[in-house]
Each structure stands twice: as structure tokens, then as C-alpha cells.
Design brief:
Elements (H helix, E strand, L loop, with lengths): L1 E2 L2 E2 L6 H7 L23 E4 L2 E4 L10 E3 L3 H15 L15 H9 L15 E2 L5 E4 L8 H9 L6 E3 L6 E3 L16 H5 L5 E3 L5
Parallel strand pairs: 1-5
Antiparallel strand pairs: 1-2, 3-4, 3-5, 6-7, 7-10, 8-9
The structure holds FE2/S2 (inorganic) cluster (FES).
Length: 203
Amino acid sequence: MRVDGREAPPRGTILDAVLALGISLPHLCKDDNLPPIGACRTCLVEADGRVVAACHTPAEGITEVSTGSPRVVALRTTVLELTRGMHGPRPDIAGGPSSGELWAAYEAHRLAEPPGPRRERSGLDASSPFFAFHEQQCILCGRCVAACQQLQHIGAIGIAGRGTAARVTPGAGATFADSACTACGSCVAACPTHALVPKEGRA
Ligand code: FES
């Protein structure tokens, strides 16, 4: 298999090969330690002429992968534009922590400026002594939920509701302090937008 003209071993997924070659490709819902979720579509590439999500497409049987063709860059840019409509201002501009993965993806796709109206959510759950959840920054990638459920087998959080009503929650009307959360920190480590952040002195 060749990725952007470079030889790559056809093992694992296309994303594995891309990252092994040191090529930058957004993959906002893929946690290094967990199987792919396939929710965000920010990892789109062109593989043998088809546009596929690199995180859950096996490399085996693929000959040519492009991460930078005009077609696939335009598609990823559209996906990222839609993602930008889901969250609040950049946290480091608004006085919060920077959001590395998400904003690096925007900048790589020349999307540094906010697009306009954003989805409004209720705000802040700071009930845990160890971390805070800034719902405005959440893009519903599901990484925190997967980390809680599949990595830690706790299941303290989930995604409730559909469409514009969908949100990450520890339960209807519940806070993290009310939930089964053990403050293990896996959700905080998994979050690519810093919607979940450690409290000062807890990092
Ligand atoms: Fe592939 Fe999200 S990282 S769909």
C-alpha cells in the first residue's frame, strides 16, 4: 500500500498506516486505546478512488491512499465546518485551556475563524472534585463515553437524546457527583476538545 506516494505496511487500518508514516490526519473520535467509533468523519481519505473513514477501513487490499487530494480535503473541510457549529469559542481565547486536536484540525484545513451561530448547551458541570465538564465545547465525538464504558467498564456517562438535543450526560438531570463516576480521568484524557478538563491542581 502507498500513502501519499510513500510505502506503508498493509496492516491494521488505513489510519494506523497514515499515523505510522507521521502524516497528520484529524481523527477526533478515535482513541488510541479503543476500537474505532466512526462518529466524526474527520478522518476521511481517498482509498483506491473511494472516500472512506481511515479509522475503520482495513489497510489490507488497499493499494493507493491519498490524504490530501482536493476532493478529500474539501470533504474533510465540510465535516470540520459542521463540527465547528457544535461548540463554543476556542477555550484558550476565552480564557480556558487550549484544545489541541480540534483546533489543529481546523488550522490544517484553514478554518481558524468561527463560522457563525453555534449550538447552545446548558453549560458547566463542576460537581466532580477532580474535573469540570464544559458542555459548550463538546462535539459529541463519543470518546469520553467509550473510555468510561469500554476502557474502565464504569458506564457513568452516555449520550442521551438525538439530533440537536443529543448531549453527553451522567443521566437525566444528574451531575457527575451524583453518578457512578470514580474520577479515574479516562474521559478527561480522551476528550479532544477540552470539554472535560481537570480542575486546577488535579492535572
Ligand atoms: Fe474516523 Fe472519527 S476518527 S470517524
